[in-house]
Amino acid sequence: MRHLAAAIIGLWSALAGLTGPGTAPAFEIESLTRFPAPGGRPAHSLRVISNADTALFSPIVLAFQERHPSVEVIYTTASSTQLMQALAEEGAEFDVAISSAMDLQIKLANDGFTRPHRSALTARLPSWARWRDHVFAFTQEPATVVISRAAFAGLEVPRNREDIITLLRAHPERFRGRLGTYDVRTSGLGYLFATQDSRQSETFWRLIEVMGGLGARLYCCSSDMIEDVAAGQLALAYNVLGSYAAARSDLADRIIVIEPEDFTTVMLRSALIPARARNPELAGKFIDHLIRLSWERADPQSYPFPPIGDGDRQAGSGNPALRPIRLGPGMLVYLDRLKRRRFLRAWEAAMLRE
What we know:
By secondary structure, the chain is an alpha/beta fold. Strands 1, 2, 3, 4, 5, 6, 7 and 14 form an eight-stranded mixed sheet that branches. Strands 8, 9, 10, 11, 12, 13 and 15 form a seven-stranded mixed sheet that branches. Helix 2 links the parallel strand 2 and strand 3.
């Protein structure tokens, strides 16, 4: 019982330190993990808030600590919208913020909630992968469709959205209640993918209508969708992060990952230094570490993401299906309150039909 009490006290202390003495954060935390300084007693603590799963990101943290053995890393995971709330509304004190919701990262910088960082490594990034020395991309990750091998037995594997629509309409009972996608009302990344898809083709809206008519299930996270496809609870999941699916090599016999041939949205995961960072210099070193791993095509064991320097993911690569999203002020368009309200109203009308 004393060990449990000590653990609770330790967790409360860590949480309270995010927003100030004697308080705990109101934003929703998914997990909090301490990476002790490998050199023993820590000289510094680096507080990271991220929407990347701890299991996926821990090799990157451990590789950083190899270079900086006196640094303890406190890694907090939260959804992209909760991350935004923590920094923009609650003044939470983190040194680094990492998110796949590029538009929300740009908004944080645009609204004055970030610090600048410049180094030889940030200067190495192309202009589309950094914004005003405040937001720095370090991955290129496609939005994919993940399907169940068992559920699609006897069917031709779809290669684009039209194929998916045709299959769903032809076999409604096979797919009813077994489709998944992001709940764009609460998922920042899901909203980003959906708005980008809507700009590319009207096919997106027809697909959402069909999925809604078949009682699609809504999710917060790619990892949950992947697990449910592998378990047979879902036959198909739409707009799943390809990096998460690729990391699950243990599920290769149960799932198929598809990059749609009509168009494949490619997002950039990015990092920034919040304005209230306690250790901005150390935070800059961590951002440089992310860029270095990405640019130098590090061992997948220490860097499990598609690198920013991968020309195969960039516009002009020879793959006409790729639709890379680039960092810039244009990302703020769908964050306008009126535009967001209209988009969500249309999405709800198409998706929530049962």
